[in-house]
Amino acid sequence: SIRGGSAAESAVYKSQLQEDPCVRVLMADSTNADKPGWSASESTMRETFERRFPEWTGGRLVVSCFASHLHRVQQICDVAIEEGRTIFPLGRSMVNNIRIAQELGVLDLPHRCVDSIEHLHMYEPGDVCVICTGSQGEPNAALSLIARSEHPELSLGSGDVVMLSSHPIPVSDTHLTLPQTPHACIAVGAV
After folding, report:
1. For residue 190, what pLDDT is reported?
2. DSSP class per residue in the chain
3. What is the value of pTM for the model shown?
4. What gap in Å lies between CA 100 and CA 83, rounded to an integer?
5. CA distance linking residue 52 with residue 65, whole number of Å
6. pLDDT, tens only, 101-133
7. Measuring CA to CA, which of 13, 39, 164, 170 is 20 to 30 A from 176?
């Protein structure tokens, strides 16, 4: 059904779309679209961040999500900044997307609240929120490199917290390392 509504609501939406001469094609896709029901609003994620981030004071917070999911990135940044943390984008697409979104005004993220990963050593652990790529366990993404202790700028240690802010996408690629990534993070001391 359209917008997760009832069959009657879907019929109304379909009728409206058919009557609108400006609509030529409607295409939609969503992970798990074949499953019944609907997902909670994206804005509910902020509540989770507001509840969890204060639990991890004193350690570095490493949050992995899709670099293209700017609404999620905004929520992570908002709560991290409210908690007194500086944002460190990590991973080529995350760095680029945050920079471009800031320039275009898509992300409401003050430049003073963002720093380059090269300056990470200048901050106390409790003042750090790294937002990185690799939430699906891609082998060469930032989080996988960190988990394997192969990232040149960031090594995890005791007191660091890693949060995967994503839902696994079903794929047929067997090279993805999502199941191993959290275990590797824990093995080097992160929570």
Report:
1. 53
2. -GGG--HHHHHHHHHHHHH-TT--------TTTTSSS-PPPTTHHHHHHHHHGGGGTTS-EEEE--TT-HHHHHHHHHHHHHTTPEEEEESHHHHHHHHHHHHHTSS---GGGB--GGGGGGS-GGGEEEEES-TT--TTSHHHHHHTT--SS----TT-EEEE-S-PPP-S-TT--TTHHHHHHHHTT--
3. 0.75
4. 24
5. 16
6. 999 999 999 999 999 999 999 999 999 999 999
7. 39
